[in-house]
Design brief:
Bound molecules: siroheme, iron/sulfur cluster
Strand content: 15-25%
Radius of gyration: 23 Å
Shape: globular
Helix content: 25-40%
Strand order of the largest sheet: 1-2-5-4-14
């Protein structure tokens, strides 16, 4: 447990690192070093990489007297998820040359490699930079990849939204030259001294996430982040942004003072002041955020400790631009843009579903080969979505036809072949790469969804639009707590089951059943699913149905770690009613 007034050890590591240099450079140059020191591993995150080990091999290696099979995860920053065909091809080749042959699209429009060996780390990052991409600030206590709506692509308002995202990405990038020295230039400038004008030598207390969208369009899950900008449109013009702050989904089972939370309303600012407004939020966080206990260090805890009113007052005190009142918003929707859509006069875009974001070749489907052929032959640019999928764009209608042929030849399912329950699903990587996983996720989700598909077809629910999300621990990487149904890992094979969020991403789910074995998930959900199948209203999602039946007129904005640990069986039975009990409620 962190002491109240003692700085977290990571603060000293940052302060003494010479602006993120540490001894990473020396460790990379020394072939005897198998695993980086814990100080360097903390700094390595700012450079976009995590040391991992293959958890499947831990036991057998231990039995053979061997240490862990270390390798590195590398995350590439891709603001608003935009890639040229050339960049995609470069990333594709690097996946084979240096990583485990797969590309992993993330829930925040970035990509990850897994399985890069220490000896290849520098060359991989160097080549990523040669493709005019970077890994700097993909992880670490800084502003992460800035997200923005993937489509519509050519609408002037959406172009402005993306412009704001790009400006934010530039504005909040760390200034340290350490990155270039370590990864690009080699030894020559390792002792260069310079300033970090915005962040200072200790950067932010923890990670800081930002997303930009348009009112009513929540394809990026804007309420899940530290800060979000919501574009307000009047008379077909973007007149400014509503600003939200203090969202975040990470929590720890059983810790009452950790919680997942929907971001709070802050204010409205002009378009020209949007970047400065996010910078002000980041500066409050930098100066006042908790630097003692990293479990309490996210912005959401600062907003909670200060109180929303005081936080807004502090924001206004620091703002050197006009701050206006929050503008009322229309209802939220979430469009994933998969399949074929018009882009502009004679141009189209086509969204392809990538299950759990993993682009790979298997015996039954050669998705990686298909995407490579599309990028080589058609040469169309790509946009990554916040749902771990991608859109090929700038296509003529003939190219769309060709693209579909290539997908079919490689057994990649077209949208019409994908069930709704799979289409809107997400799962985090979890085993075997994630060091924090306590249960399977990405590897277990496809089979679980097959069971859901069969059960939904049996109940007549194949048309239902709902999102099922799965994570291997409570950290929330696949944004489970805003989903209609979520499975959150407790221990191997066992999950907490949440119900009550929705695709729109604007409210928290409830804990529905605790400690459910994976093979019993459908059985436990069945009474609710059956009642939903029988009594749902037109276009009503499962989460909405659940909220209506259980009369949750004030949808929950916060879910605490304590709640997920200590809800008693009796309390759970109140939400987890039998079929007849639910039907009775529906009739009321
Ligand atoms: Fe995450 C840590 C993967 C989105 C909350 N996350 C991790 C690490 C790096 C594990 C670690 O610390 O050792 C995971 C790497 C696993 C692996 O093997 O690749 C990891 N997070 C991911 C990705 C790849 C999941 C995915 O399915 O795509 C996502 C990468 C996003 C990106 O491109 O930047 C990812 N992580 C998220 C999200 C969702 C989002 O932001 O939209 C969340 C919840 C939102 C939030 O931040 O509150 C999230 N990740 C966390 C947390 C909990 C943070 C907290 O406040 O407590 C951790 C643990 C930590 O930071 O200590 C974590
Ligand atoms: Fe790992 Fe947990 Fe994030 Fe899944 S949710 S990637 S298990 S940290």
């Amino acid at each position: 447990m962190a002491k109240k007034d003692e700085l977290s050890p990571v603060e000293a590591i940052k302060a003494e690192s010479n602006l993120l240099r540490g001894t990473i450079h020396q460790a990379l140059n020394d072939p005897q070093v198998e695993s980086l020191s814990s100080n360097d591993l903390n700094l390595l995150k700012f450079h976009g990489s995590y040391e991992q080990d293959d958890r499947d091999l831990r036991q057998s290696r231990r039995a053979e007297g061997l240490g862990k099979a270390y390798s590195y995860m590398i995350r590439v920053v891709i603001p608003a998820g935009r890639l040229t065909a050339r960049q995609y091809l470069d990333l594709d080749q690097m996946a084979d040359r240096y990583a485990n042959g797969t590309i992993r699209l993330t829930t925040r429009q970035a990509i990850q490699y897994h399985g890069v060996l220490k000896g290849d780390l520098r060359q991989t990052i160097r080549e990523i930079n040669e493709s005019l991409l970077t890994t700097l600030a993909a992880c670490g206590d800084v502003c992460r990849n800035v997200m923005a709506t993937a489509a519509p692509i050519e609408s002037p308002i959406y172009q402005q939204i993306r412009q704001t995202a790009y400006e934010l990405a530039v504005e909040l990038k760390p200034a340290t030259k350490a990155y270039f020295e370590i990864w690009i230039d080699g030894e020559s400038q390792v002792n260069t001294q310079e300033d970090e004008p915005f962040y200072g030598s200790t950067y932010l207390p923890r990670k800081f996430k930002v997303g930009v969208t348009v009112a009513g369009d929540n394809q990026i899950d804007v309420f899940s982040y530290d800060t979000g900008l919501i574009g307000i449109i009047e008379n077909d013009q973007l007149i400014g942004y509503n600003l939200v702050a203090g969202g975040g989904l990470g929590m720890s089972h059983g810790r009452a003072n950790t919680f997942a939370q929907i971001a709070s309303k802050i204010c409205f600012v002009d378009v020209a002041d949007a970047v400065a407004a996010v910078r002000v939020i980041a500066s409050i966080y930098r100066d006042l955020g908790n630097r003692n206990d990293r479990k309490q260090a996210r912005l959401k805890y600062l907003v909670d400790t200060m109180g929303e009113e005081n936080f807004i007052a502090e924001f206004k005190r620091r703002a050197e631009f006009p701050v206006s009142s929050w503008k009322e918003l229309p209802a939220w929707e979430n469009q994933d843009w998969l399949g074929l859509h018009p882009q502009s006069h004679e141009r189209w875009f086509y969204g392809v579903f990538v299950e759990n974001g993993r682009i790979k070749d298997t015996d039954s489907m050669q998705m990686k080969a298909a995407f490579r052929q599309i990028a080589e032959e058609i040469g169309c640019p790509i946009i990554l979505t916040a749902q771990q999928s991608l859109l090929f764009h700038d296509l003529t209608i003939d190219q769309v036809e060709r693209l579909k042929v290539i997908l079919r030849q490689h057994q990649v399912p077209l949208l019409e072949q994908i069930s709704n329950v799979r289409r809107y699903s997400m799962a985090c990587p979890a085993m075997p790469t994630c060091g924090l996983a306590v249960a399977e996720s990405e590897r277990a989700a496809p089979e679980l969804l097959t069971q859901f598909e069969q059960h939904f077809a049996h109940l007549g629910l194949a048309d239902a639009q709902l999102t099922v999300r799965m994570t291997g621990c409570p950290n929330g990487c696949a944004r489970p707590y805003t989903a209609d149904i979520a499975l959150v890992g407790r221990r191997p094979g066992i999950y907490h089951l949440f119900v009550g969020g929705r695709l729109a991403g604007d409210r928290m789910a409830d804990l529905y059943a605790a400690d459910v074995p994976l093979e019993q998930v459908l059985e436990v959900l069945n009474p609710l699913l059956a009642a939903y199948a029988q009594s749902r209203r037109t276009s009503e999602g499962l989460g909405d149905f659940y909220q209506r039946v259980f009369e949750r007129s004030h949808p929950c904005h916060r879910l605490t770690g304590k709640e997920t640990e200590t809800r008693t069986d009796a309390e759970l039975q109140l939400v987890q009613l039998t079929g007849p009990e639910i039907s009775k409620k529906v009739e009321l």
